[in-house]
Design a protein that fits this description.
This protein has helices at 2-6, 21-34, 56-59, 65-84, 104-122, 136-146, 163-166, 172-179, 213-222, 238-256, and strands at 11-15, 37-42, 89-92, 126-130, 155-160, 183-188, 190-191, 203-204, 229-231. It is of the alpha/beta class and 257 residues long.
Length: 257
């Protein structure tokens, strides 16, 4: 949290495993100390998460039957913990939601998602699907089949601008035509389309990828988006901080123009 504060940022997202009571208290104290608001928290596991086109559908999120039950149990416990910090949303990769709405796996997935979305609703939380692993149309269909237009309107999208490119699912600007009204959180991230058949595209620093951030920011303004924009740079070490600073300044100019 001190690092977030040093960057002049006042909101963030957190990914973590289940937290002890001691860690929850320490995190709450740090958030208060640095006046930082956590807009969403996420977790994964148990079991492996492999980010490529062959193993991803078998390991990511709540779609694979092998891990679904264990992950639902963990997500519910995580939601209960997040409630203690008064964080307004849970954010996860739901997995590779099947494109075919007639398949058995699709409806199993919808039922599992409805289970965790309902649990988050009881805890006063939004449930945010991180974009990327399926087309915007498929994601919207799943949200609606879970119950978006009914009592489970606590669903929303966490727009990851690069993931849609990395997974070769959509141009993020076009995705806003489909998901725009349901975007409640945003990852500012850049990337390149995949050029092979197994590995995802490459994440790169903003603005050196295929995301058209001037048009993305303009579209979000047009949609009257009021949520946060959270920078995600998927490297570690000193270069990460340098990239985040440059990305922060670049995005601020677009937002304020």
């Amino acid at each position: 949290m001190a690092k977030v504060h040093s960057l002049g940022m006042h909101t963030c997202q957190i990914d973590s495993d289940l937290l002890s009571d001691e860690m929850l208290n320490r995190l709450g104290e740090a958030l208060n100390k640095y006046n930082i608001v956590v807009t969403a928290m996420g977790t994964d596991g148990p079991g492996p998460y492999i980010y490529n086109f062959y193993d991803g559908p078998l390991t990511l999120g709540l779609i694979p039957r092998t891990y679904r039950g264990q992950r639902l149990v963990k997500l519910k416990a995580y939601s209960d913990q997040v409630k203690k910090l008064k964080v307004p949303a849970i954010r996860i990769h739901a997995g590779f939601v099947p494109e075919d709405p007639n398949s058995e796996l699709y409806w199993e997935s919808v039922e599992a998602l409805r289970d965790i979305v309902s649990h988050c609703k009881k805890n006063g939380q939004d449930f945010l699907y991180e974009t990327g692993t399926e087309s915007p149309t498929t994601l919207l269909r799943a949200m609606k089949d879970v119950g978006l237009d009914g009592p489970l309107s606590n669903q929303g999208a966490n727009l990851d601008t690069a993931n849609l490119i990395l997974y070769d699912k959509a141009n993020p600007l076009d995705a806003l035509d489909v998901l725009g009204p349901y975007v409640k959180n945003t990852h500012a991230k850049d990337g390149l389309y995949p050029t092979g058949t197994r590995e995802l595209g490459k994440e790169v620093a903003i603005p050196h990828g295929k995301v058209d951030f001037p048009k993305i920011i303009a579209k979000l303004k047009e949609l009257n988006y009021q949520g946060p924009i959270t920078i995600e740079r998927e490297i570690s070490g000193p270069q990460q901080m340098e990239d985040v600073k440059r990305e922060r300044d670049y995005l601020k100019k677009l937002i304020e123009s």
